[in-house]
Amino acid sequence: MSTSSALAYFFSSFPSLSMTFLQREVRDLRAQRQNVALFANRRPKLGDFDPQDMNLYADTFYLYPIRPIRLLKANLKLIVTRPGAYKNALHQALRLHDGFNLQRLRNLARLFGAAVIAERLSALKINHLHVHFAFGAAGVALLLKTLLGITYSISIHGSDVLIPQPLIRQKLGQARFIISNCRFHIEHLRKEFPELGDQRFYHLPLGIDLSHPPWSSVCEVASPPPLRILSVARFNPIKNHALLLNALAQLKANQIFFRCRLVGEGPTRSKMMALATSLKLDRQVTFLGPLTETAVAQQMDWAHVVVLSSFSEGTPMTLIEAMAKKRAVVAPDITGIPELVVHEETGLLYPCNDQDRLIACLQKLADNPNLIRHMGNQGHWRARGQFDINRHTRNLITIFQQERMHD
């Protein structure tokens, strides 16, 4: 990892409403006088990110959308100036395959795009690329390593390493080092891929800015009833919203007075809205759609408890934000969540996909307003002690500095 004038960050898409921790990390790196060059595979649509992040949007170099002539020129330039490297990358793209449909075609598409990124990286004299999530951007980084001889590293977060991904073994194995937001992922990957035994892993919890709005203020809320339930999660199958909705239907049958608000967008939202209607929850459940970070914080001010029902997570930023707002949390006891939530102290954990236990957790909070306050207070101090963005960023900078010393 050679010294250069900038840290280079590479995302699949950036900025994003559902990944506010990425924007937060970049902003704090810049606040600590780190020059961060930003790259992303895809340009997000206006409205898919917070207006306050417009400066990050403007600063990001986007690969797509792109004119075909630009792709052609960038690839021809590399063929002429680095013929051996381009030939090796082409062979790599055709060779890498691990059972996913059309993988070689995807590799070729990423190679063509990597040539455009390579041109920009070379102009900036950047020799190391840091990628968030082991998704498509990591696949491009794999090819950039061959094209330019640069190194790359990856921050892993959850589903990117827990759900089968194309070329995951190669992406992780070729990375210079890997940063994980929880210890669970490190232990899981070492067991899943024994060949990663010599890989350098760093454990770095996520961070939140507790000194500035919207997370610096805490709003007290009247005790239930009704129990105010909030869920902030993208609508896709892995988030398992059906479990929460069915649990709420049973709470209603048990004559527990509650209101629930669901924040997020995604492919299963319409299906979940239809399920809520079929369960006769239209008066109790409100679907708010995607919200900005400030609007999410306002919803947490409204809530008593923040709930997740996922099949898979890392250490969800939603829970850190809830604890910062002195809100009790309820979540499945999976992956990195027990590293974040202390059961019966800062929140309640239940077995994954166990509807009866989820119902019991919510009913327990509905019946015990003092427990809600106690868990909120304890969670707040835990968030302050372990998930401060300034500490996160200082430790991140230290990791980059240590890696430079290995050169």
List the helices and strands and how they pair.
Layout: E1 7-13, H1 20-31, E2 36-42, H2 54-59, E3 60-64, H3 68-81, H4 83-95, H5 103-124, E4 128-132, H6 136-148, E5 151-156, H7 159-162, H8 168-174, E6 178-180, H9 183-192, E7 201-203, E8 227-232, H10 241-253, E9 258-263, H11 269-278, E10 285-289, H12 293-302, E11 305-307, H13 317-324, E12 328-332, H14 337-340, E13 347-350, H15 355-367, H16 369-386, H17 389-405
Parallel strand pairs: 1-2, 1-4, 2-3, 4-5, 5-6, 6-7, 8-9, 8-11, 9-10, 11-12, 12-13
Helix pairs in contact: 1-17, 3-4, 3-5, 4-5, 4-6, 5-6, 10-15, 13-16
In short:
InterPro entries: Glyco_trans_1, Glycosyltransferase_grp1. With 407 residues, this protein is an alpha/beta fold.
Describe the structure.
Strand 4, helix 6 and strand 5 form a beta-alpha-beta unit. The relative contact order is 0.12. This protein has 407 residues and is an alpha/beta fold. It folds into two domains: 219 residues, Glycogen Phosphorylase B (Rossmann fold, 3-Layer(aba) Sandwich), CATH 3.40.50.2000; 160 residues, Rossmann fold, CATH 3.40.50.2000. It has 17 helices and 13 strands. 48% of the residues lie in helices and 16% in strands. A seven-stranded parallel sheet has the order 3-2-1-4-5-6-7, sandwiched between helices. The protein has a six-stranded parallel sheet with strand order 10-9-8-11-12-13, with helices on both faces. Keywords: Transferase. One of its GO terms (molecular function) is glycosyltransferase activity. InterPro entries: Glyco_trans_1, Glycosyltransferase_grp1. This is Colanic acid biosynthesis glycosyltransferase WcaL. It holds the Pfam family Glycos_transf_1.
